[in-house]
């Protein structure tokens, strides 16, 4: 623990996942201790960021109200600062977006488009509601959204999603990251939270050792082996738990605030 506290003294910026880290995904509950933690970090001059698989429109009002300094969204493909200025912008090429849509249609999979600040779904049914509604509410249906909008990420959606295999022609361009039994994020091959957070640090002129991350899911695994600290929530994916520097309590047990106190970052 003393070694972790020593490393924690180097922390200058902390990124937080949203779902089941800052708030409970299924209920939307976020404890008051999260607001308290952000206030204390701000007073100590420690920067904060959101690092999420959601796009910007999916960053719920209570998280925006925390006033983080950066938003790393769509698994690192679109980054803005607290003033809304674009820090990084990496959409699919129009050709790649259409090729992915054609493949998903050929394997009987529905799909969701992530624009920079809006979403569209190919079809709206029970399976799609089960995966998406709790996060985004009702999505507009537009199977051709990609033809008139930039696309930063596509989600596959089907009852056979676990059986889908990405065709070889895509394997040097994108990869699939599971987040739901019936859905995977399809992200650029070099696009993830890790790269997004590194872009922010590079812009700030900070070393990787000065970063700390909180997360729980498979799309947080890329962050675990960075030189900075990684804190996993108690309910995290098994691989995340195994590789984390520190494991804290669940959201409803004030896990974020407790970890920051126990590591000596705030009081």
Automatic annotation (TrEMBL):
Keywords, comma-separated and alphabetical: Isomerase
Assigned EC number: 5.2.1.8
A GO molecular-function descriptor: magnesium ion binding
Superkingdom field: Bacteria
Gene Ontology cellular component annotations, sorted alphabetically: cytosol
Listed InterPro entries: Cof, HAD-like_sf, HAD-SF_hydro_IIB, HAD_sf
PANTHER family per the UniProt record, alphabetical: PHOSPHATASE YKRA-RELATED, PHOSPHOSERINE PHOSPHATASE
Protein name: Peptidyl-prolyl cis-trans isomerase B (Cyclophilin B)
Lineage: Bacteria, Bacillati, Bacillota, Bacilli, Lactobacillales
């Amino acid at each position: 623990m003393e070694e972790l506290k020593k490393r924690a003294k180097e922390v200058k910026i902390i990124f937080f996942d949203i779902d089941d880290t800052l708030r409970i995904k299924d209920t939307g509950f976020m404890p008051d201790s999260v607001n308290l933690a952000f206030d204390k970090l701000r007073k100590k001059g420690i920067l904060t960021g959101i690092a999420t698989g959601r796009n910007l429109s999916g960053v719920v009002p209570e998280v925006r109200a925390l006033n983080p300094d950066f938003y790393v969204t769509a698994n690192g493909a679109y980054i803005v600062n607290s003033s809304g200025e674009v820090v990084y912008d990496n959409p699919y090429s129009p050709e790649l977006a259409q090729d992915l849509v054609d493949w998903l249609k050929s394997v009987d999979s529905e799909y969701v488009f992530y624009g920079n600040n809006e979403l569209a779904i190919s079809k709206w049914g029970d399976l799609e509601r089960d995966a998406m509604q709790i996060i985004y509410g009702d999505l507009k249906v537009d199977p051709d959204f990609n033809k008139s909008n930039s696309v930063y990420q596509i989600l596959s959606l089907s009852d056979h999603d676990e059986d889908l295999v990405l065709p070889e022609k895509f394997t040097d361009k994108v990869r699939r990251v599971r987040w739901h039994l019936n859905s995977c994020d399809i992200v650029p091959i070099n696009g993830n939270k890790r790269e997004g957070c590194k872009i922010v640090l590079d812009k700030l002129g900070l070393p990787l050792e000065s970063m700390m991350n909180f997360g729980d899911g498979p799309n947080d695994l890329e962050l675990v082996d960075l030189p900075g600290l990684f804190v996993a929530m108690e309910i995290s994916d098994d691989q995340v738990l195994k590789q984390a520097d520190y494991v804290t309590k669940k959201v409803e047990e004030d896990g974020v605030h407790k970890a920051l106190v126990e590591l000596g970052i705030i009081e």
